[in-house]
């Protein structure tokens, strides 16, 4: 049996397991997105229909397939179950799989699974409520700092490397907080009203802890570019008026995910294009 066949026999089952794991985490993300803004416990009671309050069976909670089996309706009261639930589960599963295929079996994979889960939950909550809850941004920030320290420990085990990664995380977090606070202040002066919520700066701080200052700047630039393009398109194609609020958290999260997978390639291309002497 050739090495290619052996690789396939290993990668395919592993990919299916990762896909199922991601979909299960996506199911929990749905719980967090629904319960956290409402001030409810994310652990208790078990999943239930928000209309008739009947507790769901275990087989009804199987990611994606449970929704398909029920045909998008509660087993008891026949109320509609939003299609967003299986979509979030599928997206999370695919995101987990992509991270696994890119970063292989490593601490980076486990860390980025957590990071992207936080980003997804925050994005959905921001879309629903125009808020970015402190419990998520703060816990994500702490987790990012811990992740950087563990990464430094595993790379060499020396205190110098651990401190280096700690300073990288703290520096990125501080830059994210200060930079987006400054943008919010300048925007408020320019437009005469709040241009950005305080939660966006906290999300940027969380991203800085995970990505470091260089990749934070890249993620922020991508977020601003995509956000401006989206906002302009919405105003042109619909009746949205200038100054109408659009949640910025999802754009920050998108910028972070793009940077996670392509940050090094983007920065390298930028340097080769505008600073060829440095690239050489």
State the separation between the terminal residues, measured CA to CA: 44 Å
Low-confidence stretches: none
Overall number of domains: 2
| Cα radius of gyration in angstroms | 21 Å
Estimate the helix proportion, in percent.
over 70%
Percentage of β-strand residues? under 5%
The arrangement of helices and strands along the chain is HHHHHHHHH
The overall pLDDT average reads 89
Compute the number of strand runs: 0
- Which outline best applies? globular
> What is the number of helices?
9
Derived structural class: mainly alpha
Largest sheet: none
Could you name the key traits of this structure?
280 residues; 9 helices; 2 domains; mainly alpha; globular; 0% strand
Task: Walk me through the structure.
74% of the residues lie in helices and 0% in strands. With 280 residues, the protein is an all-alpha fold. The chain folds into two domains: 1-105, no CATH class; 130-280, no CATH class. Helix 1 (3-35) packs across helix 3 (84-103). The longest helix is centred in the C-terminal third of the chain and has 40 residues, at 198-237.
Brief description of this entry?
By secondary structure, this protein is an all-alpha fold.
Which secondary structure elements does this structure contain, and how are they paired or packed?
Layout: H1 3-35, H2 65-70, H3 84-103, H4 107-129, H5 134-155, H6 159-191, H7 198-237, H8 249-274, H9 276-279
């Amino acid at each position: 049996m050739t090495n290619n066949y052996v690789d396939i026999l290993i990668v395919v089952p592993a990919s299916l397991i990762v896909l199922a794991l991601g979909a299960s985490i996506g199911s929990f993300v749905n719980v967090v997105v629904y319960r956290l803004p409402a001030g409810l416990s994310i652990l208790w009671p078990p999943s239930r229909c928000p209309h008739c309050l009947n507790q769901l069976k275990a087989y009804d909670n199987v990611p994606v397939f449970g929704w398909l089996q029920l045909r998008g309706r509660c087993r008891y009261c026949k109320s509609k179950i939003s299609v967003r639930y299986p979509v979030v589960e599928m997206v999370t599963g695919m995101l987990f799989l992509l991270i696994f295929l890119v970063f292989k079996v490593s601490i980076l994979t486990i860390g980025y699974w957590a990071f992207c889960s936080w980003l997804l939950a925050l994005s959905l909550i921001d879309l629903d409520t125009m808020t970015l809850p402190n419990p998520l941004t703060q816990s994500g920030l702490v987790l990012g700092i811990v992740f950087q320290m563990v990464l430094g420990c595993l790379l060499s085990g020396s205190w110098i490397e651990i401190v280096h990664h700690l300073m990288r995380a703290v520096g990125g977090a501080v830059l994210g907080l200060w930079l987006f606070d400054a943008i919010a202040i300048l925007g408020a002066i320019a437009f005469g009203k709040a241009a950005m919520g305080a939660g966006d700066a906290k999300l940027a701080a969380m991203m800085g802890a995970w990505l470091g200052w260089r990749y934070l700047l890249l993620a922020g630039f991508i977020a601003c570019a995509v956000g401006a393009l989206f906002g302009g398109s919405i105003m042109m194609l619909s009746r949205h008026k200038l100054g109408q609020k659009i949640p910025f958290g999802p754009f920050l999260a998108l910028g972070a995910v793009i940077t996670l997978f392509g940050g090094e390639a983007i920065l390298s291309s930028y340097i080769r294009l505008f600073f060829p002497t440095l690239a050489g």
